[in-house]
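AK1D1 dehydrogenase: structure, please.
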Amino acid sequence: QTPKGSCLEAVKIAIDAGYRHIDGAFVYFNEHEVGQAIREKIAEGKIKREDIFYCGKLWNTCHPPELVRPTLEKTLKILQLDYVDLYIIELPMAFKPGDALYPKDENGKFIYHETDLCATWEALEACKDAGLAKSIGVSNFNRRQLEMIMNKPGLKYKPVSNQVECHPYFTQPKLLEFCRQHDIVIVGYSPLGTSRDESWVNVSSPPLLKDPVLNAIGKKYNKTAAQIALRFNVQRGVVVIPKSFNPQRIRENFQIFDFSLTEQEMKEIEALNKNVRYVELLM
Ligand code: A2P
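Here you go.
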């Protein structure tokens, strides 16, 4: 989903800037570039493999338990790495397995598949036991879906994290509290309010980075609205995975550890919550 070579460059710049957590997926079609960037930086002596935290994702068409390990092995082969640090179920719905990543019927409707999410989870547990994934988690799961996994008879490992949309306009107060109680880390995607690509983003919600409150607070600290949005989440214990292909903005998004927001500012930003998603995932 990225122009050829741009991901390789962006990951190398990010590693040089200090990033260590890289969020990827088979369906981003750039895992080969991510793997190459990591391997080049290791060869340069800039990092060791264990410094990097790579998250890979199991796509919807690969939920049947017998497909899980081969799918992860395929990702590892593309990355040319021995293990991923985190492997997560990308979405809590299964599509019909096969070559089509977005299988649709003649009416344009998605063709789903009846795989028990708990069975998929057990296959992830086996990948962890085999050393192919250091940790396992989920993404886009609501509380009910998390509970289904956690209450599964014979559960071996609970999800360490749940990656969901999270930013000042969609702060996830209830899910965050639930996950805190259960020691599940929330990883916030679209922490800057997305690229506003109308093919997958609900653009009726206003642009996050134009928000007057974020910009006013930014002025006080000589920071941008983007830095304030990221700092807000980090300060409340939410991991952020900002996306940028621009060297200056990649570096900018890392400069968030030299200041902190006051309690009052945290509250002001929390009050921006609109409970509206940019990424509706209507499938
Ligand atoms: P670009 O790649 O040109 O920097 P999200 O992380 O919420 O998905 O947002 C990604 C979008 O935000 C991308 O369009 C990216 O564009 C843009 N972006 C990333 N960092 C910044 C920043 N510091 N200021 C403004 N826009 C940014």
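Notes: The pocket of adenosine-2'-5'-diphosphate is lined by residues 190-195, 209, 224, 226, 242-246, 249, 252-253 (CB under 6 Å).
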